Amino acid sequence: MKFIVSSTYLLKQLQVLGGVINNSNTLPILDNFLFDLQQKKLTVSASDLETTMSTELEVDSDNEGTIAVPAKLLLEILKTFPEQPLTFVVEDNNTVEISSNHGKYALAYADGAEFPKAVELASPSTTTIMGDILATAINKTIFAAGNDDLRPVMSGVFFQFSPEHLTFVATDAHKLVKYQRADVSASQVAEFIMPKKPLNLLKGILAGSESEVTIEYNDSNAKFSFENTELICRLIDGKYPNYEAVIPKENPNRLTISRNQFLSSVRRVSIFSNKTTHQIRLKIAGAELNISAEDIDYSNKAEERLTCSYQGDDMQIGFNSRFLTEMLNNLGSEEVSLEMSLPNRAGILTPIDGLDEGEHVTMLVMPVMLNN
Amino acid sequence: MNKTILHLDLDTFFVSVERLINTELQHKPLLVGGTSDRGVVAACSYETRGFGVHSGMPMKMARELCPEAVVIRGNAGTYSKHSDMVTEIIKEQVPLFEKSSIDEFYADLTGMDRFFGCYQYASELRQRITKETGLPISFGLSVNKVVSKVATNEAKPNNQLKVDFGYEKLFLAPLSIKKIPMVGDKTYQTLRNLGLRKVKTVQEMPMDLMQRVLGKNGVVIWKRSNGVDHTPVIPFCERKSISNERTFDKDTIDVVKLRGILLAMTENLAFQLRRGEKLTACIAVKIRYSDFNTYTKQMRIPYTSADHILIPKVMELFKALYNRRLLVRLVGIRFSHLVSGNYQINLFDDTEEALNLYAAMDHIRERYGDKSVVRASAMGARTIGRMHNPFNGQPPIVLAHRKQ
């Protein structure tokens, strides 16, 4: 088995795939890239058993064969090369020899047959979506997903497809983001929960991409294909909580404020909040928003006043400032609105401007129970 | 610069307060502590000490040793009121003080020598306290907390002692090693087995040897023996955990009762957390069986102060812990890893009704006392609960070992 490939081209593809590989694997074979050569077509795969990603590369060759090459070593050496053709030759003694303009390097390889096979999706449903839209949807939601091993369903993003629109939801039970696109749709109703890791990979690859992504899915797996890359992953098993039911419908108190101003105030004030709970207090009366925080243990205290437009009763509500900053940071609008009903019910944060046609973002943040 | 640290200790505090309330008890042997079979002596008057009575001893034994003694159960509320009176006077008179327990104070008088003379100043303070509150008090004055405390213990009862700068080692040398704070019965035995009796011997020993025998504590004991102690006077006492435990008058195997008590404790402690605007991240359950084997089990949880999260966790721990089918002597609960903050509401698990119920119950408790509303299943445990706020910066009011 022998092939010639451009060093930077190979590196670019491998770096993307490298994201799949875990730092410590139970199966040693998973520390490798699988190279599957079919004449001019080289398919490189990486897997962590849950997620498998593969990319097709154009190479110069007339051989066939499969080998598993140590990922870390290969990436390290490729990073050091300037652009040049590299020749990979598989030797008899279980090593693969790479020849560059500078010299020769030999790596031990494992048999490609040992590498776990990617799952084949049985009777999948299909939908297509623009790469950039998918990346945005992931970007808008993924930060809100939880990390709790005890509630695995909440550690992923909920994909809800229907002929009217596509909906993406993430929550950790303290905050929730619902991102809806009415300008894209699927042929039939379907829903599944995607784990975070493959989404983070997709987010990185697809940002700004103009290409179409084909999503195939069934009950247990999903496959994302675009350009020359394929990503297959296992879905999170379980029932997603009924998030619609917890979004308060009646919210008589509505605050409208400049996002940037609000964000920088919350950031500044939260420096003085407790380092574990990050708790801040919003007091709204008339057209004034008062943001305050206190860290009793260290006698730190801060208070800021902002003018805002507010309709509703005077109220006092406590939030974890981390949730607020994450959400405000994630939005891109000039102005945001925060709708509330009671100090112990969710606040609903929505952008007022800067959305595409058919794009809807709803963010929910749960308050803390303040003592009155 | 040398520091000047004053240690003040109210003599037989509980006894003195009882005598203040009832003058007939003057000069009579008096015992304060639990009156049940399992009660222990929390305080005893000097008259009883001749009979071999000391605090921490089972009340039953104390009564046998000194049958003519008057036994009083004691009331934490009265004691803390009198303790507060003393605190007020000290607060007025000294620049920096630490209330290390209900009847003990440290004050930092560093730098005051220039104006008043610390010893004279302290003497006047002592006289003022005795005059205004009627309580006998002793003090020790030296360069650090440990030497001052030892000096106070030497001065007692109702007296004062000053250890001049540079004479700390000499002052400690002839004393028994038992007088060094932190040398308890166990350490004392270990040291005696090494042939140590007087502090002087420890002073002459190399520090390494102490370290080899007692580890880290050995170093501390060696330093203390040499009159070296750099701990500062800390004016505010921050609670690192809150706990509640209960020894039964009679060992029990009634699981329903045990659960009821644990529930009542959890409910009460959770209320204390919410009132103090605190959250806990670690809960522990403790069981002592009738054979005195004590087991604890703890668990980390996400920060919370909500009953409906804490109660199931406590029950889960209890279930895992209680497996010996033996009579139980004591159960207890501790919440630690406390931080200030309020309960973060959960989108899916918390209903508005439940949250409003918490708020309403806490409101009632705030106004009518913490036992005014309790869960029905916790009603069996009538005496669980305490009336004071554990987060007011004061040391816990414990009637030192009411029970053994």
List keywords for this structure.
heterodimer; A: 372 residues; alpha+beta; DNA Polymerase III, Chain A, domain 2; nine-stranded antiparallel sheet; 7 helices; elongated; B: 404 residues; Alpha-Beta Plaits; DNA polymerase, domain 1; Dna Ligase, domain 1; 3 domains; five-stranded mixed sheet; five-stranded antiparallel sheet; 14 helices; 13 strands; globular; DNA-binding (chain A); DNA replication (chain A); DNA_polIII_beta (chain A); cytoplasm (chain A); transferase (chain A)
Weakly predicted, low-confidence segments of chain A: none
Sheet with most strands: strand arrangement of chain B: 5-6-1-7-8
CATH topology of the largest domain in chain B: Alpha-Beta Plaits
Quick one: overall form of chain B? Answer: globular
Number of strands of chain A: 26
Biggest β-sheet of chain B, characterized? 5 strands, mixed
Shape of chain A: elongated
CATH class of the largest domain in chain A: Alpha Beta
How would you sum up this structure in a few lines?
Helices cover 19% and strands 42% of the residues of chain A.
Describe the protein's architecture and organization.
The complex is a heterodimer of chains A (372) and B (404). Chain A has 372 residues and is an alpha+beta fold. Chain A folds into three domains: 2-114, Roll (DNA Polymerase III, Chain A, domain 2), CATH 3.10.150.10; 125-244, DNA Polymerase III, subunit A, domain 2 (DNA Polymerase III, Chain A, domain 2, Roll), CATH 3.10.150; 248-365, DNA Polymerase III, Chain A, domain 2 (Roll), CATH 3.10.150.10. Helices cover 19% and strands 42% of the residues of chain A. Chain A has helices spanning 7-18, 71-80, 131-141, 196-206, 243-246, 259-270, 321-330; strands spanning 2-6, 32-38, 41-47, 51-58, 64-70, 85-90, 95-99, 104-108, 110-111, 125-130, 156-161, 166-171, 175-181, 190-195, 212-217, 221-226, 229-234, 253-258, 279-285, 288-295, 300-307, 309-311, 315-320, 335-340, 347-351, 359-365. Chain A has a nine-stranded antiparallel beta sheet with strand order 9-5-2-3-4-17-16-15-10. In chain A, helix 1 (7-18) crosses helix 2, helix 3 (131-141) packs across helix 4 and helix 6 (259-270) packs antiparallel against helix 7. Chain A is elongated, with a radius of gyration of 25 Å. With 404 residues, chain B is α+β, with helices and mostly antiparallel strands. Chain B has three domains: 1-158, Reverse transcriptase/Diguanylate cyclase domain (Alpha-Beta Plaits, 2-Layer Sandwich); 170-225, 5' to 3' exonuclease, C-terminal subdomain (DNA polymerase, domain 1, Orthogonal Bundle); 241-378, 2-Layer Sandwich (Dna Ligase, domain 1), CATH 3.30.1490.100. Chain B has 14 helices and 13 strands. In chain B, strand 5 and strand 6 form a beta hairpin. The longest helix of chain B is centred in the middle third of the chain and has 21 residues, at 255-275. Residues 399-404 of chain B have low confidence and may be disordered. Chains A and B meet through loops of A and strand 13 and helix 14 of B. Chain B: This is DNA polymerase IV. Chain B: Keywords: Cytoplasm, DNA damage, DNA repair, DNA replication, DNA-binding, DNA-directed DNA polymerase, Magnesium, Metal-binding, Mutator protein, Nucleotidyltransferase, Transferase. Chain B: It catalyses: DNA(n) + a 2'-deoxyribonucleoside 5'-triphosphate = DNA(n+1) + diphosphate. Chain B: Monomer. Chain B: The active site is at residue 104. Chain A: It is found in: Cytoplasm.
